[in-house]
Write a structure and sequence with these properties.
Length: 356
């Protein structure tokens, strides 16, 4: 017969219908305590600690973290692929635009493989069949596959699965350089902007802000009285706007950027928002105004995001190190900056080599 397992003494416990954390000591061992915690129906996790007070403090910290993040799913909460998908893209931390992207891709995937099926029963063959059924371009296939991978990684992170059925799939695409303005086109482009669009465009070319950031920017996030003025792009509770990557970012202001803010104050005198009388619900107008200005000026035809790319390229062409540009763009890692703008560094290196 196998040896009988020694029982443990319960030292501390906190629990509710969804989560449980406890501290126990082994009777056969001195100065040994074990922290155990898990979501009901999920995988149990264990941490060993030598000191009793330290173990209780650590367990209390785990419990408090759970109370602040109670929406983590458990195995008993969601069974089908449709239920898991809805829980995934309905999280409050996801920006509306990102939510629409996930919802569209995962709804298409669920409809193909069967939304009623258990997400644990989805196989690599299902993923492969779905990808083969797509008639869109490879870049669109890559986008849909990214959403599927993120869904199953979410399930793994929450202890619902151990292996992702989508992990072995990848779609390689050639990175395409999207339209941007060269520095010598800035002046003509700005002169062609409509009066209300001019300060918005000028500010964007100086700060490389995203469309959601400029739309949700309030004067309370602008700090002009500091020795080195800066602006903070952050969440807006009034519109449920969340900054990309969930992190707010501060950007220093150049003299030209400050000038654009003064122009905005004259245009929208009594608004808490910097670039409008109130929150701009329709960001399509910004993209439309950008195309109109480019066509009128005869420059490269860009959308609103093209001004962000233009700002980054101007910084790099003027010798700003790429790691600094990455911080100004508020990328989550420098790898993203290199992927989008590394080609410019190659051209710059070639020009230096040609001097020899």
């Amino acid at each position: 017969m196998p040896p009988k397992r020694k029982s443990a003494n319960l030292v501390w416990i906190q629990e509710d219908k969804s989560f449980r954390v406890l501290v126990e000591s082994r009777r056969d061992r001195k100065e040994y305590f074990r922290i155990r915690y898990w979501y009901v129906g999920g995988k149990r996790k264990t941490v060993s600690v030598a000191d009793k007070e330290e173990a209780i403090a650590a367990a209390q910290s785990i419990w408090e973290h759970y109370l602040m993040n109670p929406n983590r799913i458990s195995a008993k909460s969601y069974k089908t692929l449709e239920e898991l998908s809805e829980a995934f893209y309905s999280r409050s931390s996801i920006r509306p635009k990102t939510k629409r992207y996930y919802q569209q891709a995962l709804t298409e995937f669920s409809s193909f493989v069967g939304s009623w099926r258990s997400f644990k029963r989805i196989t690599p063959a299902d993923i492969e069949a779905f990808l083969n059924s797509l008639t869109c371009k490879d870049i669109s296939k890559q986008s849909k596959l990214r959403a599927i991978k993120t869904l199953f990684n979410y399930a793994i992170k929450n202890g619902l699965m151990e292996v992702s059925p989508a992990s072995r799939f990848s779609i390689k695409t050639t990175h395409q350089i999207r339209p941007y303005l060269l520095p010598n086109e800035f002046e003509a482009y700005l002169e062609a902007c409509k009066p209300a669009f001019y300060p918005r465009a000028l500010f964007t070319l100086e700060t490389a802000c995203r469309v959601g950031e400029i739309v949700n920017l309030k004067w309370s996030s602008v700090f002009l009285e500091r020795e080195k003025p800066f602006v903070v792009f952050q969440a807006n509770s009034d519109t449920d706007h969340q900054p990309k990557w969930g992190k707010r970012g501060a950007v220093p202001l150049s003299k030209t950027a400050i000038e654009s803010l003064h122009l905005a104050r004259k245009l929208w005198k009594h608004s808490e928002y910097v670039f409008s009388d109130k929150f701009l619900k329709n960001t399509t107008n910004l993209c439309r105004d950008s195309h109109l200005a480019a066509r009128k000026a005869g420059t490269t035809d860009i959308d609103f995001h093209g001004m962000r790319r233009s700002a980054a390229i101007r910084w790099l062409m003027n010798g700003v190190p790429i790691h600094v540009v990455s911080q100004l763009l508020r990328h989550s890692s420098i790898d993203i900056t290199v992927r989008h703008y590394g080609w410019l560094l190659t051209d710059e290196l070639a020009r230096h080599i040609e001097r020899f």
